[in-house]
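Retro notes - structure team

What went well: the batch runner handled both jobs without manual restarts.
What didn't: labels got mixed up in the shared folder, which is why I'm recording both outputs here explicitly, each with its sequence directly above its tokens.

Job 1
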Amino acid sequence: MTAIASELERFDRLSSTWWNPSGPMRPLHVMNELRLAHLLDRIALHFGRDNTTLAGLRVLDVGCGGGLLSEPLAQRGAEVVGIDASRGNVFAAKRHAQSQGVTLDYRLGEPCDVLQPAELFDVVLALEVVEHVADVADFISTAARHVAPGGLLLASTIDRTWKSFVFAIIGAEYVLRLLPRGTHQWQRFVRPGELAAAATGAGLRRIDLRGMRYLPIWHRASWSRDTRVNYMATFVREAN
């Protein structure tokens, strides 16, 4: 198992709150708007197409949670496969998609179990998930095998620094209570260099790295040069 059992139990308990923009997932809703805009622009730039439609593209969302990003990508025409090891998450994602009349393929389980070896995607997403797995290098290697030649892998996570301990754990979970206590374990945070090394070992090349700033009082998110808390990295598999 790539996923950690205690993490799955916690996400199962929180699964009913995914689509409540004022609940425990509020920070993700705020960050999701920023990440979606960046993803659409990155896809448009990389594939040389308009950023208003994703028709003709296959997208894999690994650790899709309740579908906060899978669903808007499907609404824009992408063929989306969302996978998650939490039964509660997948149930919440399916239920919300059905209520909105959105068609996409949600699968319960680990990538190595629910994906065929030959399944390839133009874009693979691993957003806010690598800090919840037991072996980051193995997880990235598995996800990377499904990136088509010329395709992209985008990963977002939290850096393992003193600043992330202060802001992402003490501040967010204990002081401001933006997230339930125990949402994150500092020792599982991933340095940008560690993520890049895992991706390079899997045959990918990093083409973008950017930090994300979240202002909890105002519930706003913006891009930043500072990667010491939240950050997003984009990797490419060179075309054959």
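Job 2
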Amino acid sequence: MAKQKISWGLHLIELVVVIIGISIAFALEGWSESNKRKDLEQNYLSSIQVDIDKDIDDLKKIVDSTKVILQHVSEVFQYTLQRAPLESFKRHHVTSSYLASYFYPQNGTYLSLMNSGDINVIKDFELKAALSDLYNVKYKELERMDQVIKNLADNRIQPYMIDNIRFSFDRDGIEDFKPLASNRAFNLLGSFFNLLGDRQTAYAAMIEKCESIKTMISNLKSNEE
């Protein structure tokens, strides 16, 4: 019985075809995975932009409201030193001394990035460093500053005002400004005024930092399109 001649050339061609097919499959899979990572990165970047936009808006609102509080506290000092008529003092001169607003950052997207391990989908090292500094350092510094002010307002100023100030029932004012002219009141309000002034500077710097990160994200998204 004659032996069947093996067609090595045909086998070689089939092997090459198989190798090419596998290579194409791997290439397509890599391309698909790369596109998925790009899409995921773009989604995260867009979400972070939304969070930072909200933070900037909140910071600006607090800065504006704090300007009003500082004006009211400044008027308390002015009126008490000048022995202004009792009618000059309004309810807001008292309530402004303990009803400040505080900043709560939108950090949901960043926490999701860190907890899921997806932080690595963001390829730009400079942006990752900036985000880490923002959420882990700068926002924490603002939180500590706010906490100092809140503790002063809630635990020292508000109890003093509630115990010593009597609001008028028939007009927008108070019945006696002497408690506002005491050394204790001056020290409490002076500390509050100075802390809020320092916070205004810190908030302004934070708004600039957030704007710079937004610009970085916009540039990265534009380069990927």
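One thing worth noting from job 2: The chain has a mean pLDDT of 88.
We'll revisit the folder naming next retro.
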